[in-house]
Design a protein that fits this description.
The protein is of the alpha+beta class. The chain contains 14 helices and 18 strands. A hairpin with a 4-residue loop joins strand 4 and strand 5.
Length: 393
């Protein structure tokens, strides 16, 4: 059964009823990420679709609050009218999963989805100012503003962002916003290998010219030639100067060409949503975070291990998307190549494979004990998205 509360109190009552009858709940927003995480079987589904609408928007204060089921498109339209935006550039997962659902702002908060601008503006969790949610006891909990911690000392805003609905059912979120850039320009270097591309991105990001995004698309991803893209944004009068000076910084890597505005925005939407790796849909897709300087070595180790794959580098090399033919052995190869330098999340695979492998980065015993303790403090009976992130939790 799918339960669709239209009021926060109704959501709390639904969770209390589930707890008292020991019924498990699958937490759902817009339904765009149902194929993510470990596959789970629950008694009922609790949906936030009925909790929709912007509850507070103060453009002068650069902040808004909205019910968790509010479509991201609705929020972006309201912000656009005031010349503002979600700074962290949230990914639209429909590209990699398919489906016809609409991303919701609560889903963005629950997954911590952040796009290319993260390296400059911060991640979703950095810009999430407050949350209201229903915990596994059916209690309505509020955190944000001056009330940032509960009696356990946990930062309730940060701990819920990226918890994938395992700690509570989000009802309302508050985010910081920023002004939209007046102008957007991207410098593109061509034909760089992984190592030279990371060096170029590092040089650009280390320059004083406020690069807002840096990504590398190898030759086998989205084009006949490798492309390394560096984005400049904001005040129109400064873009020409910054582009000229940044091109000088990058001259050792080749001559940069420019694309602007609509063409530039289209490129970064495609990078944000990993368009180049979206097909075929039955490929495994990994999201790997590493120190940027370690990215070329990681990719080299994967090739040396015999893995056939395609990759896209974002965040200056700190985020690597890897697509390969689905097989269980690939998981071992990826995690062994990664070593202790970062973490890998299996974003897309068949239900059978996601049930048998670690979807999220494996935790050592001490960290798993801490994770279990946090889960128990929020959801003592384990009724909310049980097993979505880790088996048994």
């Amino acid at each position: 059964m799918t339960i669709v509360p239209t009021k926060e109190a109704e959501a709390a009552e639904a969770v209390r009823a589930a707890q008292s009858s020991r019924r498990t709940l699958s937490i759902e927003g817009g339904g765009t990420r149902l194929a993510f995480g470990r596959p789970i079987q629950t008694d009922d589904t609790l949906s936030s679709k009925g909790l929709s609408g912007i509850t507070r928007y103060e453009p002068a204060e650069l902040v808004f609050s909205a019910w968790a089921g509010t479509p991201v498109a609705e929020i972006e339209a309201a912000l656009d009218e005031k010349g503002q935006m979600l700074p962290f550039e949230p990914m639209d997962h429909r590209t990699i999963y398919g489906g016809s659902g609409a991303p919701t702002i609560g889903g963005i908060a629950a997954t911590g989805a952040s796009g290319p601008r993260r390296i400059q503006a911060g991640a979703a969790r950095d810009l999430l100012l407050g949350v209201r949610f229903v915990n596994g006891r059916g209690e309505i909990v509020k955190s944000g503003g001056r009330v940032m911690k509960n009696v356990t000392g946990l930062d309730l805003v940060k701990v819920n962002c990226g918890a994938h609905g395992t700690l509570g059912f989000m009802t309302e979120v508050t985010f910081k916003v920023l002004p939209k850039p007046e102008r957007t320009l991207t410098l593109i270097l061509e034909d760089l290998d992984d190592e030279r591309a990371v060096q170029a991105m590092s040089a650009a990001l280390g320059s004083p010219f406020s690069v807002s995004a840096a990504a590398h698309l190898p030759a086998d991803v989205g084009g006949a030639r490798a492309r390394t893209a560096l984005r400049l944004e904001h005040f129109a009068e400064s873009i020409t100067y910054r582009a000229r000076e940044l091109a000088k910084v990058l001259s050792a890597f080749g001559r940069a060409r420019e694309i602007e505005d609509d063409e530039s925005r289209a490129l970064w939407r495609a990078i944000r949503d990993v368009d180049a790796l979206a097909q075929p849909k039955d490929d495994m897709l990994w999201r790997v975070s590493v120190p940027p300087t370690q990215a070329p070595a990681l990719l080299a180790r994967l090739r040396q291990a015999g893995l056939s794959f395609r990759a896209l580098l974002d965040w200056g090399g700190g985020l690597i998307w890897i697509a390969c033919t689905e097989n269980a052995a690939a998981s071992t190869v990826v995690r062994e190549a990664l070593g202790g330098d970062g973490h890998a999340t299996l974003m897309r695979a068949s239900d059978a494979l996601r049930a048998s492998l670690d979807v999220f980065q494996p935790q050592d015993a001490a960290l798993m004990k801490l994770t279990a303790g946090i889960k128990a403090s929020f959801d003592p009976d384990g009724i909310l998205n049980p097993g979505r992130m880790y088996a048994g939790l």
